[in-house]
């Protein structure tokens, strides 16, 4: 991921966000040291944004598509109320195992359930409504996830799609994933069932509110 925000600005913004929990710092350090593609993890700034969105929407049920090592799941679970629930979909058993290890240390562990397998299958097995849905898995499937997820989202609920600027590749799409994100962004823009705003935070974040 090539940063679209200048590094020093990104750092300044990060240092003016509230501190993450000790567990989030631990997940971040482990992921940076031991995992391939650690930049897949949302990290401090975006983790705080997701936690803020959970609180602002008064979400009780959150669905995540793309768990990785558990950073965003823990950030959102920490922001949920006592009786809150977070379901996270992950296809890679190695990622799910690492994440579960961290979740087991989390005071909010009882709120978090991992659905192992292809996300599209897991989504079809779930019952809505969810108050907030975070899409952050394979980019080629965003369109499919969007349709099913919209059916699981409550009216007035919030969907958050990550990497929608894809290091700027949406401006000159070449790869399959570039085209998938271009098509996804157009699809959401033209969908009368939702309203949306695109943020130039990190790799681009699309906030989608179901009417
Ligand atoms: C960008 S990472 C998620 C990062 C995570 N939200 C975080 O902040 O740490 C994407 C994850 O989606 C998973 N993934 C990819 N394709 C998937 C699929 N078809 N179904 C479920 N998970 C998938 C990958 O294994 C990877 O762990």
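^ structure tokens above, recovered residues below v
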């Amino acid at each position: 991921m090539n940063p679209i925000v200048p590094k020093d600005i990104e750092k300044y913004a990060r240092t003016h966000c509230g501190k993450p929990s000790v567990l989030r710092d631990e997940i971040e350090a482990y992921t940076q040291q031991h995992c391939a593609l650690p930049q897949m993890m949302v990290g401090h700034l975006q983790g705080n944004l997701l936690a803020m969105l959970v609180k602002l929407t008064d979400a009780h049920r959150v669905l995540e598509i793309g768990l990785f090592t558990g950073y965003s799941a823990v950030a959102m679970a920490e922001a949920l109320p006592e009786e809150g629930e977070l379901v996270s979909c992950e296809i890679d058993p190695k990622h799910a195992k690492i994440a579960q290890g961290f979740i087991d240390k989390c005071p909010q562990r009882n709120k978090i359930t991992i659905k192992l397998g292809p996300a599209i299958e897991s989504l079809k097995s779930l019952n809505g409504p969810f108050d907030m849905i975070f899409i952050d898995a394979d980019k080629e499937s965003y369109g499919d996830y969007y349709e099913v997820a919209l059916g699981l989202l409550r009216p007035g609920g919030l969907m958050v799609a990550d990497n929608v600027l894809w290091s700027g590749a949406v401006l000159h799409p070449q790869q399959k994933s570039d085209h998938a994100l271009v098509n996804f962004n157009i699809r959401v823009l033209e969908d009368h069932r939702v309203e949306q705003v695109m943020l130039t935070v990190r790799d681009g974040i699309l906030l989608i509110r179901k009417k």
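The mean pLDDT is 97.
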